[in-house]
Design a protein that fits this description.
10 helices, 70% helix, globular
């Protein structure tokens, strides 16, 4: 049974969202470089210390769904149905993230990111962190007996698929094309006797 968050947690989440929404409005209206942390705090009617208790940096305000995206990626591994292959589960989640980030409403945000060296650098470090978390989740699955290198490689491929597909004219088709290559790489790395169609009964619940 899902435990509902308490009043304190709901209030904290609401404050965080208010800060993030205020920051994005200011960034898009005035330009990212023209807005400071104090401007965001004042507009959101919170103390600067409160802002930093929710966001570690100015760049983090732009990527406020960072932790949610990372959790979604790892849950694509840990929460997939018994016997469901890894790659289709990852493809489904990456496609959902790509569609979210290529919606018309997201276009101004990613134009802002593309125009800011600081935001591009932050996004790259975020992708590397997501890839490491995803690799850890893959390596921890007893039904996926791959080497650490293979797990990290496939995780990096999946994260790069998100970035590459987002930049194309047809993101859905790009995800399909990229994941065909990712699946081929995953199958090639499987130990002997673990090729497609020969995977033993899952030990996952």
């Amino acid at each position: 049974m899902t435990v509902q968050p308490g009043r304190r947690e709901r209030k904290k989440a609401a404050t965080r969202q208010k800060i993030a929404d205020t920051a994005m409005e200011l960034f898009l209206e005035r330009g990212y470089d023209a807005v400071g942390i104090r401007d965001v705090a004042a507009e959101a009617d919170v103390a600067v210390t409160t802002l930093f208790s929710h966001f570690a940096s100015k760049e983090a305000l732009v990527f406020e769904q960072d932790q949610d995206f990372e959790q979604r990626l790892t849950r694509a591994v840990t929460d997939r149905a018994p016997h469901e292959p890894l790659i289709p589960a990852l493809r489904r989640e990456i496609l959902a993230l790509v569609r979210h980030c290529t919606a018309d409403s997201a276009a101004p945000i990613y134009r802002m990111v593309d125009e800011s060296p600081a935001l591009r650098e932050y996004e790259e470090s975020m992708r590397l962190r997501h890839a490491e978390s995803l690799a850890t989740a893959i390596a921890a699955d007893p039904d996926l007996p791959q080497s650490t290198t293979a797990c990290r490689t496939i995780a990096r491929f999946a994260i790069d698929a998100y970035a590459l597909a987002r930049e194309t004219a047809d993101p859905d088709a790009a995800v399909d094309e990229i994941f065909q290559m990712i699946e081929a790489a995953w199958e090639a790395a499987l130990p002997a006797g673990r090729a497609r169609g020969t995977v033993p009964v899952s030990t996952r619940p």
